[in-house]
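quick one
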Amino acid sequence: MSELLSGKLVAESIKEETVRAVEELKKRGVEPKLKIIRVGENPSDLSYERGALKRMAGCDIKTEVLELDQGISQDDFIAELELVNKDDSVHGILIFRPLPKHIDENVVKYVVAPEKDVDCFSPINVAKVMEGDRSGFAPCTPSAVMEILGHYNIDLNGANTVVLGRSMVVGKPVSMLLLKENATVTICHSKTKDLSKVAAAADILIVGIGRAKMVNSQYVKEGAIVLDVGINVDENGKLCGDVDFEDCKNKAGMITPVPGGVGSVTTSVLAKHVIKACKLQIG
Ligand SMILES: NC(=O)C1=CN([C@@H]2O[C@H](COP(=O)(O)OP(=O)(O)OC[C@H]3O[C@@H](n4cnc5c(N)ncnc54)[C@H](OP(=O)(O)O)[C@@H]3O)[C@@H](O)[C@H]2O)C=CC1
Ligand SMILES: Nc1nc(=O)c2c([nH]1)NC[C@@H]1CN(c3ccc(C(=O)N[C@@H](CCC(=O)O)C(=O)O)cc3)C=[N+]21
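structure w/ NDP:
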């Protein structure tokens, strides 16, 4: 059995740092606050919301959920978002995505205040991730991957890293964050030829494709480090990743489980980002 990369452990260590930072802010009379904006009742939004609320409570970060009707017009959504932008008591804004189809994300993304945009929706923050400028906010999930690699002192310098998936939520930003740390990055997607062969060349394999247990031991080089970003529900209704953990656990050198892996670090990063946003805004 390979070494388990424990997201829970990493989450706990980020949480401790965050709790201390919140205490400091409160001494200065500042109460950090996150506003979650949810349109409708998408189950995956609700599941993230539950985890986020629990984590924020554990860090003593005030959190409010703005629940908007599934049918809200784009103009009304923008008006609501502008109110949150202007509200000085709110330091961080998390908008659940994807938004309903009638609300154009390519319009709305320009509205969210970049200094409050804790999950990298604004093009300003996307550009900063591309440029390797750490002054903005990278999305929480890719940042969680980096936190795990950092916590376990995994050397990225020149490391042969393969990322499966190229979404704006996971694959693309994590690739840019890895590149910033001088990893050599190969980005794969649904059109990649000989996917298992490309993956099996990696020293570090990051998987975010949304295909339950698709990545088996054929995709994994002996001793490779495997981080599974996937969150799916298997045939028995249990949470599982995009990696077939049972098949890969002996071949990989280090591997994240699901649950208890990357997903459990995401909300800790969210809390960390709220504190960063708060500090940015109070100066
Ligand atoms: N841990 C957490 O907190 C979070 C976890 N997730 C999870 O991460 C996973 C990915 O999410 P997300 O990026 O939003 O998903 P998307 O569906 O937006 O993107 C999936 C990506 O994987 C690629 N892909 C899909 N099927 C294959 C395949 N058979 N072979 C190779 N590449 C493939 C797609 O390629 P193409 O571009 O060619 O279509 C695409 O780039 C999901 O399991 C999701 O639940 C997501 C957000 C947060
Ligand atoms: N702007 C935005 N950013 C997101 O990151 C985002 C989003 N919108 N919309 C919804 C999806 C879905 N998503 C989940 C994350 C964790 C769990 C989850 O189940 N987490 C478990 C832990 C899982 C584990 O331990 O691996 C928990 O919190 O207990 C589910 C869903 C994020 N999303």
